[in-house]
Amino acid sequence: MSVGPEYHFNRQYKTYNSSGTQLSTTGVDASGGGFIGLNWTY
Known about the structure:
The protein is mainly β and about 40 residues long. About 0% of the residues lie in helices and about 65% in strands.
C-alpha cells in the first residue's frame, strides 16, 4: 500500500471524436492532492 501527497501543475484536457477531430480543450489550474495505491502480487 502506498499513500502520499502530490501536486498537479497547470495542464489541459482535450477531447476528440472517433475520426480524430479535436472537439474541445479545457484548462485545469494547478492544485495539490493525494493518492492511495494498493498493489497485490501473488
